[in-house]
Design brief:
It comes from Streptomyces pilosus. Helix 3 links the parallel strand 3 and strand 4. This protein is 39% helix and 16% strand. It has eleven helices and ten strands.
């Protein structure tokens, strides 16, 4: 029998319903997402792309409350490695998302670094490696973001290592953590993205446990990933090939990840995020039901 993971709060996100954009005809309507995520047995959700769910706090609160749901976090993208000139546009985005996140009673803002390669066209937008100066901009910028988001909105930022960004591999993640203040910046460990980029989630949790502030649960298909790596396929087309797969078919094993997280002795959100953009409207719900059942079998 699985050990009860009583410090782990399981949820899901619009991403698991194929939602990547505020508005896209290939995506399910937000009402259907809310209905189905509740039906699948989840009680926590993320906001997803700002503007997908209603942005009026009173209306959104009503919609989630009557489905028995609560919000765990909002999400933003930013390119703070480019230096102080990025701050104004970053804060403009943050202020909208963080205000709604706070108003929904959530405590976290997930921060994803900007892509160095276009996730649709594969166009190289920037070098994949940052210069020393850019690393300085990135770490100082994230610390400033953490400080000001906390002071202004009462939220903790958790930085999300992500494929095709500058915080991706074990080397980059460890460099980022070693260069930032744990009082200002912690990590959203996405098990799928970290495996996609060659990292070991259990090892990271055991080594940098005090920096793990939030989890995204997903798996990668090792065979598809090998082809993606060999052919340097960008993230968007890799997702369309099914590189992010339904658990427990892929890696890493989620049971050991959740057990390692439980051992940290702190309350952690573990939000299921199975990248599936675009997908057929009827595909997400059965996967979500099976995934929730699987996570219960792990004790979560």
């Amino acid at each position: 029998m699985a050990v009860a993971l009583d410090r782990i709060r399981v949820g899901s996100a619009p991403d698991s319903w194929g939602v990547w954009f505020p508005d896209d005809p290939q995506q399910v309507p937000w009402q259907r997402f809310l209905d189905e995520v509740a039906e699948a047995g989840y009680s926590w959700i993320e906001l997803g792309p700002y503007g997908y769910l209603p942005t009026d706090p009173a209306r959104l609160a009503d919609e989630v409350d009557r489905r028995g749901l609560r919000v765990s976090a909002g999400t933003i993208f930013c390119g703070l490695h480019r230096g102080p000139s990025e701050w104004e546009s970053t804060w403009e985005q943050v202020s909208r998302v963080a205000a709604l996140t706070r108003d929904m009673g959530a405590g976290h803002l997930v921060v994803i670094p900007s892509f160095w390669r276009d996730d649709k066209t594969a166009e190289i937008l920037e070098p994949a490696e940052l210069t020393t100066e850019q690393w300085g901009h990135l770490t100082r910028g994230m610390e400033r973001l953490g400080r000001e988001v906390k002071e202004t909105y009462g939220l903790d930022i958790v930085v999300h290592p992500h494929a095709d960004t500058h915080i991706d591999t074990e080397e980059h993640v460890e460099r980022f953590l070693d260069s930032t203040d744990s009082g200002l910046v912690n990590l959203c460990l996405d098990t799928g993205h970290y495996a996609y980029c060659g990292g070991d989630s259990v090892k990271l949790i055991e080594t940098y446990g005090e920096r793990i502030g939030y989890l995204h649960l997903k798996q990668v298909d090792p065979e598809i990933l090998a082809d993606v790596v060999a052919n340097q396929i960008p993230f968007g087309p890799a997702v369309q090939r099914g590189v992010m797969c339904e658990p427990p078919a892929g890696v890493p094993e989620l049971g050991p990840v959740l057990t390692a997280a439980q051992k940290l002795g702190v309350d952690l959100f573990a939000i299921v995020e199975q990248d599936m953009y675009p997908c057929e409207p009827g595909k997400p719900l059965p996967i979500a039901v099976r995934t929730r059942k699987f996570l219960r079998s792990c004790g979560a």
